[in-house]
Amino acid sequence: MTIENTEELVLNMGPQHPSMHGLFRMVVNLEGETVTKIEPKIGYLHRGMEKLAESRTYAQFIPYTDRLDYLASPHNNWAYVQTVEKLMGVEIPERAEYLRVIFGELARIASHQVCIASTALDMAGWSAWSYAFRDRERICDMYEMTAGSRLTVNIMRIGGIMEPPAEFWPALKSFLDDTPEMIDEYNGIFFGNEIAQGRLKSVGILSKELAENLSITGPVLRASGVNYDVRKAEPYSIYDRFDFNVPVRYGCDSYDRTIIRLDEIVESIKIIKQAVRDIPEGPIMAKVPKVIKPPVGEVYHRVENPKGELGFYIVSDGTTKPARVRIRPATFINLQMLPIVSLGWKIQDVVAIFATLDAVLGEVDK
User: Fold this and answer.
1) Which residues contact 155 (CB under 8 A, 6 or more apart)?
2) Taken in order 67, 68, 73, 77, is the CA torsion positive or negative?
3) Which residues of the chain have pLDDT under 70?
């Protein structure tokens, strides 16, 4: 039966909608259940982060970076303090570099676990959600041992990092020992599930060409067949010392954008094991002045955040506060794909497509 003269429906999703992953809203135009247009609406979480940075000292701004991608706080700390260190020409002690890599990769694992869990949950996969969150709690425990907090973890310092307590190392070893079983469980309960595969495979195609043209980065880009990772393309810290692969998938669909996070968890585990094996004794802080006044100049530094490329641009006028700070957040850039790849899909498919972006609105609105 053909239905003629149908009226287009305009549906408001968010900012309170449970599948919006934060204060994100999109206006969806529908014909029946088929999406004809999506208009993202951002800005509900805007906190003026860049201007806050310009009214704080260099050290005072570190805790604010926790609130960008709040699912990977240590990585945001790391990107910012490395940018300041680059501006100052500070050399970091060896032990501090290894500790930074360990906590950075733990943050990547924890972030990817949330992505896998939330994608499952957005498709009503309550059991699959609980498995990944259960395992992430162990990383949060290690955060708490070291920094006293579990989400907005303020652990990096300009010139170094906090030293984890003695009980951190057995907890880390236990976690690493259990990861093969965790990965098997994720594959069994979620990625191998025929309903999950039916909802994600061949849905929301982001072609290699479109991903490159939109400047997409991170797992979303690599799931579209592009072998690009800042840790390999422009190695920072001590990543050039580690043997690891950059996972790439070629399906360009929602399934590959999700399962590539599992691939990256495997590689992060490899990096952490090598770092634990090779970490030297020694100091964890470089000799930096108590009052930090970088020389006049400007610098841009980027890292491979769990969501993609995170960059900080800082302009110094020689005072205790930066003259200008600009943040290049991965999620904000990656969000461009949503109105394009969602066209022609059902409204329930859009929920799944959005979940595979792993959007954190603290990073989008900043």
Assistant:
1) 73, 74, 77, 103, 143, 146, 147, 161, 162
2) negative
3) 1-5
Question: CA 142, CA 170: separation in Å to the nearest integer?
Answer: 10
pLDDT the model gives residue 310? 96
> Which CATH number applies to 45-365?
1.10.645.10
Q: What is the dihedral of CA 319, 320, 325, 329, to 10 degrees?
A: 150
Give the three-state DSSP class for 197: helix
The residues spanned by each domain of the chain are: 45-365
pLDDT one-digit tens code per residue, 15-26: 877 777 778 999
Task: Give 90's DSSP letter.
Answer: P
Q: Which two tokens stand for residue 235?
A: 């190695």
User: 308 exposed, middle or buried (CB, 10 Å; 0-12, 13-18, 19+)?
Assistant: buried
Q: What is the pLDDT of residue 124?
A: 86
Instruction: Please tell me the pTM assigned to this model.
Output: 0.95
Q: 153: helix, coil or strand?
A: coil
